[in-house]
Amino acid sequence: MEQAARQTRQRVLGYAACAGAGCLWGMGFYFGKLALREMGSNHMVLYRFLFACIGFLPVVLLHPARLKASEWRALLTASLLGIPVQFLVQFYGLSLTTVSHAALMVGTMPVILAAGAVLFAKERLDGLGWLALAGSTTGAALIVLGGKHSQTGRGPSLVGDLLIVLSLIVALGWILLNKRLMQTHSPIVVTAYGILSGTAMLIVFVVLRSGLPPVHGISMRAWGALAASGILCTSTSTLLWNWGIHHVPASRAGVFLNIEPALGSWLGVKLLGDQLGPHAWIGGALILAAAITLTTRGHEEIPALLE
């Protein structure tokens, strides 16, 4: 009985951690768009991860990595995919489209994640689970499409939207590799060393391609947005997400990724001066129903990822 209660408690906390990560990630596009007003996408992403590293330095000092050579290769591969590749592509796409459209594209991630977990990780998802994911993604789309875009400023673009989707496909590799590493190492170690190594790669790429990031002439509003996106939307959210999927199946945790487009689209609407219509309420109800369906139903034990 005690073991069952402990497993239930860990599962609930795991879902809560994934939900918290989704909320924090939902603010990322909004903060990113504020910073993009004063600098290019490459420098914005670099500053975001430099701020994120501040929170992880104490973790590295207190938790030395004890990884085998093969595990270091997996960690570095995940870091390359999850930080320089994913974020540079994603925020370049954001610079070409609107916050609302970027948020809509993120709504495809739970389906990508669930499909990847089933294909590569041998996780099992029944028909009702797939229906819940589809309903959640549809809800995210309704929230974004229900708003009336303002006529001022740069509008959405097909290239920008497709780059967002491409970055999500890249993110799938990062998620699956991290999940495999967390079978034998703590989430905090995998997260900290992954962020720091990925940021080191990012520094090299950005400085060689775009030069040193600007320091003078940046407003306090932009600095605040960069700090929030790094500390809250990157370091804190990644810790919560990695801890969460360590305790729950990735295919079921994927539904909480739809909090990001829901919240992100709402912030985008506020930023762009759009109005939320009845579609937003319907979309929110779909997301909530999907979350309740996936987190309250019993499920089978899931095999370890990529064993």
Task: Kindly list the characteristics that best describe this protein.
307 residues; mainly alpha; 13 helices
Task: Give a quick rundown of the structure.
The chain has 307 residues and is mostly helical. 77% of the residues lie in helices and 0% in strands.
User: First CA to last CA: what distance?
Assistant: 29 Å
Mean pLDDT: 80
Radius of gyration (CA) equals: 19 Å
Count of DSSP strands: 0
- Note the run of SSEs as H and E: HHHHHHHHHHHHH
Shape: globular
- Bin the helical content: over 70%
**Number of helical segments with 4 or more residues:** 13
Major sheet characteristics: none
- Overall structural domain count: 1
For this entry, what is the oligomeric state of its chains?
single chain
Strand pairing plus helix content: what structural class?
Answer: mainly alpha
- Beta fraction: under 5%
Task: List low-pLDDT spans.
Answer: 149-153, 298-307
